Amino acid sequence: MTSTSIIVFGAGGRVGRAITAEAVVRGLSVTAAVREPERHADLAGSQVSLVRCDVTDTAAVAEAAAGHSAAVSSLYRADVPSQDFYRTTTGSLLAGLGRAGVGRLISVGMAATLETSPGVRILDGPDFPADHRAFSLGHATALEVLREAPTTLDWLVATPPMDLGHDGVRTGRYRVGGTELPEGGGHISHADFALAVLDEIERPKHHRTQISVWA
């Protein structure tokens, strides 16, 4: 792999696909890492290598990530307990990327982990839907693992608003904030969110923290 190569774990999802597409537009080499490559054969191309990878397996992460300059994590599983899944995969990414010598990780966060006031997350609110809480706590767990890990990995959790549109156009514009919910809740298209992720790979501005990204 060249110095302008990235690996996208979870490249088969909508956000992962948007990030992969933006990387291709920029002329980067991409490894699209998915659990079931046969379901995502359309991802493969002249700039995209499609590989099978179980992100719960540290050795598999290290093998897939070797030689890349940066990694993106856009993971989702509905068939396993969310907190267990994100705790395991985040730990596996930290260890595997460290073993592979990858220095930068951008993890796609979830809006429910943003704060409505200092120390109060959206998911802590009394009106937050109970059926969304378990999955949201999984993302919160991933963030805790990153914050507490004794690692030199330069990680970043980029968090889109709840209004994340897969059918929105690429405007080429976005805004960045801290851990707080954007005023009015915010919105962004997958394409513009991917733009922010790739900008943080090519021109890093935020390090070992969580940011909100909206249009």
Automatic annotation (TrEMBL):
GO terms for molecular function: oxidoreductase activity, acting on the CH-NH group of donors, NAD or NADP as acceptor. Transmembrane segments: none annotated. Residues 10-204 form the NAD(P)-binding domain. It comes from the Bacteria. SUPFAM superfamilies: NAD(P)-binding Rossmann-fold domains. InterPro entries: NAD(P)-bd_dom, NAD(P)-bd_dom_sf, Polyketide_Oxido-like. This is NAD(P)-binding domain-containing protein. It comes from Kitasatospora atroaurantiaca.
